Amino acid sequence: MHADPQQRYAPPTAEVADIPSADDAALGGRGARLLASVIDTVVLLALWGVVAWLTPWNIFSPSTASAGAATMIGLGLAGIVLFLAVNGVLLARNGQTVGKRLLGLRITRRDRSPAGLARLALLRYGVGGVLTSLPTVGMFYALVDCLFIFRADRRCLHDMIADTVVVKA
Known about the structure:
Blueprint: H1 30-54, H2 69-94, H3 98-102, E1 105-109, H4 117-132, H5 137-147, H6 157-162, E2 164-168
């Protein structure tokens, strides 16, 4: 209790500071996450190169940019199939992509329980994939998504959508 009645509504004078938790040490590093993403992209682009060489589906062709909506949707679906063919088993078992596995990272729920393939495929990757494919909105979403990693909890926008976090494996 305060002796002065005018002081009863004053803010507390105790110093309050953020204390890093032991859990912060388990978070995946920003550089490791970036490198894992680069590895995943290189692997998928290499596989798209093989697909383009063996089939008429060539995402690298200049004519693809002017293709109709049906072609673009088909290529998008093919990309999802390719992504899941490469990473599906790892995501389902360990919450990892090829890049995350190589760098000792994994994706979990915030409470460190397994995220599950459906959550990862639909929310973490699916929602972001749809948003980034939208004209104008996609570029803005991609930029904001990347910049969110600089927050203290290192969760990108796609992590917040899926309620996930990247931790050291």
